[in-house]
Amino acid sequence: MTTLAHLRKAALSMPGVEEDSQGALIRFTVAGNGFADVSKDRVVQLRLPKADVDTVLAEHPTAERVAAGPRLPGVRVPLADLNGQQLNHWVRRGWLAAAPEDVAADARASATARVGEVGDLPKAIGSPATRALAGAGLTSLADVRAYGIRRLGELHGVGPKAIGILEQAIGASAD
Q1: Who contacts 45 (Cβ-Cβ below 8 Å, separation ≥6)?
Q2: To which H or E segment does residue 38 belong?
Q3: What is the maximum alpha-carbon separation in the chain?
C-alpha cells in the first residue's frame, strides 16, 4: 500500500517540482503544469499521455478516466491500489509529459547514466544514486556541494550510504 508520503517523495524527487496545497487537494507541478494531485480521501489523479492512461486503466480495476484537461488526459486511482514501484513509474511518466522539453530530455538521458561515467561522481555511490543525481542535473562533486548534502535525501535513489560516500568525496576534494 502506498501513502501520501511515498507520493510526495516520488514527485519531489523530480527536478523543478513544486507542491501546493489547495484546501483538501495537494498538487504537484513542474513549470506551472500539474502532473499529480491527491485528494484528502487519498485518491491520486495523474495527468498522463493517452497511451499511459489506457495502460493504467487496464492494469488497475479501480482506476477511472478523467476528462482531458488543457494539456493532458488523466486517470484517478486510490493510492492504496498502487504499489510503490507503480506509483514511482506513473509519477515519473506524468512529470516527463508535463516538464519543459529540455528538462525532460535531461531526465530521460539520466536513465542511462552509468556508474563511473558521470563527471567526477564516485563509483561507490551505485547506479540508483548516479541516475538520481544525473536526473537532477548534478554531474560533479561541485554540483553536489552547491546543491547541499542535506537536500540529497530528497532525491529518490540517493540513500544514506551514497550520501556518506559523497560527503567523504567532497571533503577529500576540498583538501
Answers
A1: 36, 37, 38, 39, 66, 74, 75, 76
A2: strand 33-38
A3: 57
Query: What does the pLDDT look like over 94-134, one tens digit per residue?
Result: 999 999 988 888 777 777 777 777 788 899 999 888 888 88
d(CA 44, CA 63): 10
Spatial CA neighbour of 79 closest among 130, 119, 49, 37? 37
Range of the domain at 48: 4-100
The Cβ-side half-sphere exposure at 143, using a 13 Å CA radius, reads 13
Residues 8 and 69 in one domain: yes
- Rounded to an integer, the average pLDDT of 42-68 is 91
Q: Cα–chain-centroid distance for residue 33?
A: 15
In a domain, 128, yes or no: yes
Count other Cβ atoms within 10 Å, centred on residue 123. 13
Q: Report pTM.
A: 0.70
9 with 83, same domain? yes
User: Cα 79 to the chain's mean position, in Å?
Assistant: 16
Neighbouring CB atoms inside 10 A of 15's CB total 17
Rounded to whole angstroms, what are the CA distances from 31 to 20, 72, 83, 93? Answer: 13, 15, 27, 16
Q: Which residue has the cell 511515498?
A: 6
Q: Give the pLDDT of residue 164.
A: 94
CATH of the domain at 58: 3.90.1150.30
